[in-house]
Amino acid sequence: MATTYLTGPAGVGKTTYAIEQLRRWLNTGIPANQILVILPQLTLAQPYRALLSEPQLPGSGRVEILTMNGLALRTIELFWPLIADLAGFDRPHDRPVFLSIETAQYFLRQAIAPLLKQGYFDPNVVPDLTISLPRLMSQILDNLNKAALMGLPHTQVGPRLAASVALDPSSRVALEHTQACVNRFRDYCLARNLLDFSLRIETFHRHLWPVSGVRAYLTTRYRYLIVDNVEEDNPFAHDILEAWLPYTEQSLLINDEDAGYRIFLGANWRTAVHLAEQADEVVRRDTSYVAPSALLAFGQRAADILNYEGAKATFPPSTNGDLVSSTLDQSSHPPARQAVHRPVPSSPIADLSQIMSFEQTRFYPQMIDWTVKQIAHLVTEKEVSPGEIVVMSPFISDALRFSFANKLQRYGIATRSHRPSRPLNEEAAAQTVLTLTRLAFPHWQMLPEPFDVTQALSHSLVGLDLIRASLLTQVVYRPFAAKATTAAEAEGTLAQILTTFDQIEGGVRERISYEVGVHYDELRRQLLAVAGQPEPPVLDHFFSRLFEFLAREGFGFHGDIEAGQVIANLIDSARQFRQVAEQVPQEASDRPGIDTLNRAYLETIEQGIAAAQYIRSWELAPEESVLITPATTFLMSNRPVDYQFWLDAGSSGWWERIAQPLTHPYILTIDYPAGRPWTDADEIAAQRDRLARLVLGLTRRCRKHIFITNAEIGEQGYEQRGQLLTVLQQMLRQLQRESNQ
C-alpha cells in the first residue's frame, strides 16, 4: 500500500499530476478496470476523460470515473436482494427506483400533500415563515441529504437544528413541521422502493459497506484510487476512503487548500484534511503555474484583512465535548487541530494597476456599460479570446444576463451563461417549449396566459418582436374556445384556439409581415399534427421533435447553441421523470399512462423545482464566448482564465449566505458540536471565512488581470456597502501607506 496525499492551492498542477499518474499506471500495464477515479461531482471529470480518449493509451478494460453517490448507486443495484429487506423496504422482491433531485421533489410533494392540507407551514401558524413550495421541498431534501452524509438519523434533524438556532416559538413549530415532512417522505420512499440521494447513502453505508463480502468486492476490484478535490467531498466519502485506502496497491488523494466551496452540499474540508494521516507521504506544492505573484499577493492580502486562518479554522468546542451521535466513526473525524499548511504572510505588490482595475459608478447600468467597454477593448483591440474572459457576480439575474448578451452582441462578441440548479422553467428556451406544449395538449386544461403565448411566439419566430407578437396573440389566440376534455378532441379544439394567419385582416397582416405569418402557420400545423395523433406522444420525444422544428432556418432556435443546451436538459429531465414515475403505482397496482405522466411532468416542472445537474451545462461552448456565471459556479468548474470581471463589489451576496430558515449548512455538519448555539459571531466568522476562500480561489485562477466594479446604487435600487468593497478599500489604504514609506 502506497498512499500519497497531494495538497496545495489552486493552480499548482495537482490535477495535472494526477492525470500523469493515471497515464503512468496504464503505461506500466496496470489493468484499467482496476483503477477508480473518485470526484465530488462528475463535472470535474473532463481532464481525465480527455486522457482516456487518447487512442494510443494502453490498458485492459475501462477506467471508472465516479462520485461516491454513483458508487453507492451501482453497489445497491448489484446487491439489492442481499439488503432490501434488512434496510426496511416494503417491496424487497421488486427492483429499486433511484430518484434524481427532480423526481425526488415530485414524490416529496406527493408524500407531504396531506400534511400541507392539514395546515403545515400555514402563515397563520408560522407567521414569520414565507417560503414557496419549491424552496420548502428543497430545504426538506437538503436536511435529509446532510443528515445522511454526517450519519445523523433522519428523525433527529429537527431537534438538532432547534437546539442550535435561537428560535421563537413559531419557528420551532416550523422545524417540527419540517421533521414531520422528513419522516413522512422517508416512510413514503421505503413503501415504494424509492431511493433518493439520502436513502442511497444510508443504505450503502449502514447495510452494504459493513458486509465483508461487499467491502471485499469493491476493495479487490479497485486496487488503484485517484481521489481529486477531496476537500469538496463529504464525511461519508471520507469515512469510506479511510477504510478503503489500506487495501489499495497505490492511491493518490488531492486536496485543494482554502477551497471547500460545496459546503451547502455537505462538503467538509476539515474531515478531508484528516485523510492525510492515512498517507505514506504528504506532498505539498506551492508554485503556481497560473497566477502571477502579484495576483497571489493580492488574494492573500484580502484574506489577511479578513483574518482568514485557513486550515486552522475549526468550531469552538461544545460544553460537553461531544459530537453528534452517528453511524460514522466519530473517533476518526475529530475537529481539525493541526493545519497541513499555514497561510503565508502578505507579500508586497509593486504596482496594483498591473493586475487589478477598480471602477466605481453611480448607477447599475453604468457599471454594465463600463464592463462591456472593457471586454470589447480586450477582444477587438488586444485580440483576447472571448473564451478567456469570465464575468462574475454573486447572482446572475435574467436582466443582467440579457443586458450583457445584448450589449456585447453589438460588438459581435458571443456570450453564454451558466447557472446550475436554476429551475428549467425559468430559461427562455424552456419557457417557449413548455408554453407550446400546453397549447398542443388542450385537454389538460392548462392553456397558457396570453402573455406567455406572446413570449413563446416572439422566441419561436425570427423577426417577431414583442409588440407585434402581442398583436398576433390578440388576433389568433382564443383560449375561451377550449372545449376538449379527452385527447381525441384535442386537434379540433386546438384548431379553434389557434386560428390561421390567413384569417387576419389586411392592415394587421401587414404590420406582422407575411414572412412571419408563413412561419406562424407552419408552427400551428406542427402543433395540430401532434394534437391529432391517436395516441399521445411521450413528452421527451415531443420536446425533441419540437426543437428540431424550431431549429430550422426562420425559427427562433436556429443557430442558438444555448437554447439547444437548455432543451437538451429539458429532454433529459422529461425522460428521467417518465422512466422513474412509470415504475411507481399511483393507486393499488395501477401504473400511470403516458398522458397522465406527461401532464404530471408539466405540472411539476412549472412549479419551479430545482434542476438536476446536467454535465453538458458545465462543458465549454464549441464557439468562443464570454462566460457569465455566479462566482462560486466558476470556482467549481476548476479552470483558469486570463481575465476576470467581478461585478457588484458592494453587494452583500459576496459573503452572505442565502437565507434557509428550515436548514443550516454549518449546524448540519459532523464536527459542529451538537446543542451548541449558533451565534451572530459565528455567522460573521463564517461569512469572513467564505469570502476569503472565494477571493483566494478567484485570484489563483486568473492569469493576467482582474477588473472589479461596483455601483453605488445596486440592481434593486439600494445603496451598496458590502464586505468585499470594504476589504478592497482597506487594501488600497494599506498599499498607499506602504508606498509613502
Helix/strand class: alpha/beta
Question: What is the overall number of helices?
Answer: 26
Helical proportion? Answer: 40-55%
End-to-end CA span: 55 Å
For the secondary structure, the number of strands is 14
Mean pLDDT: 88
Contiguous runs where pLDDT drops below 50 for at least 5 residues: 317-345
What about the largest sheet? Answer: 6 strands, parallel
Strand order of the largest sheet: 3-2-6-7-1-8
Q: β content, as a range?
A: 5-15%
**Overall spatial form:** globular
* Rg result: 27 Å
Give a verbal description of the structure.
- This protein is an alpha/beta fold.
- Helix content is 46%, strand content 10%.
- The protein has 26 helices and 14 strands.
- A six-stranded parallel sheet has the order 3-2-6-7-1-8.
- β2 (35-38), α2 and β3 (64-66) form a beta-alpha-beta unit.
- α5 (133-150) packs parallel to α8, α12 packs antiparallel against α25 (680-699) and α15 (428-440) crosses α22 (561-581).
- The protein is globular.
Kindly summarize this structure in a few lines:
By secondary structure, the protein is α/β, with parallel strands linked by helices. Helices cover 46% and strands 10% of the residues. The longest helix has 24 residues, at 169-192.
